[in-house]
Amino acid sequence: MVCAGGEIAFVFRIIEDSTKMKHTFRWFTSMVGPKISLSILVPQIWKCGVTVVKTTEFSQGIASRWGLAWSFLPTSLKKTTFHKAGQDNLSFMLQVLKLLAPHATFIIVFHFLIWKLIQFLGSSTSL
Fold first, then answer.
1. Across the beta sheet with 63-71, what order do the strands follow?
2. Is this model's pTM higher than 0.90 or not?
3. Which residues contact 44 (CB under 8 A, 6 or more apart)?
4. H-run or E-run covering 65
5. Among 57, 18, 17, which Cα is nearest to 37's?
């Protein structure tokens, strides 16, 4: 896909669309290639009246891409926490895993029981 003006112009269009649809979706996201694009896009997003902007890095091998997310949620509805000195600054995925940790034991035990059932069924059918 080619966009006149390149990646930054394309994301600018997404930002403009998000201002028109701010009551329809909670979060808007985009991924950009060069990190320098964030320094151009983030100030533009703040000018649109958003209440929160988040960025993160996606890395695989030597390739890096940058995630950009913003929301128009009223301050009273925001469920985000901010990094405080002395606390772990977890990535989005690690925050999700931390939330799911209480359920991890159940998931592991469930998979273990399924594995044992498959072993049992496999051994009982070989006569």
1. 28-32, 63-71, 52-60
2. no
3. 12, 15
4. strand 63-71
5. 57
